[in-house]
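Sample intake sheet
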Amino acid sequence: MNEMKRVNVFLIVVSLILGSTMLVAQKKCSHHHHKNFFKRLDKDGDGKVAIQDILDFRKDRLQKTDKNGDGFIDKEEFLAKKHSKKSPEHKPRRGKRFFKRFDKDNDGKVLIQDVLTHHKERLQKDDKNGDGFIDRKEFKHLCTKDININF
């Protein structure tokens, strides 16, 4: 019985170590992703990005997803984007949240302009000094929220 307890304790310790290592790796990966994303948006390297530049990036991504060009993202378009090789970061629950948040009349379509208006309001709120730019510190804080700016 003593031997069995030792084996169980050993397995618990190993699983805790492996679990915490995986969490640290996930956090570093996420931080690395956001850092690279910020660099991509910060074209002049001054450590800040204009809110309008973020919205333009977002609008471009949404319009590319809107395959039929009607100004809406429907569930088929969203799923096609989600399953494309270019966007492995999407998880199934994000689609549900995206439509729950933006599909107000439950018709299976989201107006691109509604998404942009929502994100503009959120970005302006997170622009703590009100200068119209998101700096690295504000961006890091923004990335801890569930805004999914990288759609």
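Comment: Residues 117 and 145 are 17 Å apart (CA to CA). The domain at 45-151 is CATH 1.10.238 (Recoverin; domain 1).
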